[in-house]
Amino acid sequence: MSLTEIILDAIKSNKITFGYKQSIKFIKSGKPKFIVIAENIPEPMRKQIEHNAKIFNLKVEIFKGTSKELGVTCGKPFPISTLVIEE
Fold it and tell me: The domain that contains 72 carries what CATH number?
């Protein structure tokens, strides 16, 4: 199953959290399956996501495209730099 298919499946089942700030909160308090970040995410944001993922032993997937392309993939009219797929 491709990353795009996993994202679309999570959207259908409403098991997804969009956005950098919401993703950080969910990583610290929820049970994420894994985290997806866009290729062009700013370096400080990427480091913060990766740091939190390492602390909680979570997998980080890099979406092969920009945050705008990730937004389009998710059916949103705005860029998405980070999302969390919930268990």
Answer: 3.30.1330.30
